[in-house]
Design goal:
alpha+beta; 2 domains; 3-stranded antiparallel beta sheet
Length: 185
Amino acid sequence: MIDTSDFAVGAVLQQHIESTVEPLGFFFRKLSATEKKYSTFDRELLSIYFSVKHFHYMLEGREVVIYTDHKPLVFAFTRKHDNSTPRQIRYLELISQFITDIRYIAGRDNVVTDTFSGIWQINLLNLNDFDGLAEDQFSDPELQSLMGSGTGLELRPMYFALSEKPLYCDVSTGTVRPYVTKSFR
């Protein structure tokens, strides 16, 4: 699944195992000043391009389906490229080497990647210090208490591209929400 905001691109690589979907990896990247000026189509295409480049070693030789909430991308892979820019053609050619299908998914069902592509809008968290938050979570008594109590929170360790350490996130609502310790609030 991929998604794009005005600030970043995001993707989650998932594997279907029987009736469940297991995340294998996450990717997001802040857009440069130039990339922020791209059209919606070009930003969405850029999201797939960067995601495929990031996960290429896991995609090679497998059936890969891309899910996007941007319908024009679905048709971009089946039409002639007479009106496409050279950059779009380069991106489409690279992407076509790794994916077998691209499908539309309604934006409301694209919760995970919406979270990652929109994470740059969060003002509460200094995104340059994911490691600091992860370390703070490790020793936070409030988090330890919440994990042991019967609250409705589903706190799970999750890995993000900005850190090698896991961040504990609540996933009970279907949206990945990092637990922010008091010192980071």
